[in-house]
Write a structure and sequence with these properties.
This protein is an alpha+beta fold. The protein has three helices and two strands. It has one domain (about 5-75). Helix 1 links the parallel strand 1 and strand 2 (about 45-55). It starts with 13 loop residues before the first strand and ends in an 11-residue tail after the last helix.
Length: about 90
């Protein structure tokens, strides 16, 4: 298992990525998650499996880029309240 922050993951990929985007606060601030190049790195490093844990409503309300991500996930029926166990 390899755990790292997004900034240290440029140029790398992994079989499965579990991405924690937990940003829940009353101000709706999403910090680095508003930076497009960091998000691109975070979303493009998985080869076989990719799971995001976070508050998609806060992300989408704070940045139009996340609206597009949320819509793409909804189209694929790949968004929900839990990670399915198989």
């Amino acid at each position: 298992m390899h755990v790292t922050v997004v900034d240290n993951f440029q140029g790398e990929e992994n079989k499965i990525i579990l991405l924690s985007l937990v940003r829940s606060n009353s101000e709706g601030r999403i910090g680095f998650l508003a930076t497009e190049n960091r998000v691109c790195v975070a979303l493009s490093r998985a080869r076989d499996g990719f799971f995001i844990v976070g508050n998609m409503d806060i992300l989408a309300a704070s940045n139009p880029m996340w609206i597009a991500v949320k819509e793409a996930l909804e189209k694929q029926e790949a968004i929900g309240p839990a990670i399915p166990v198989r």
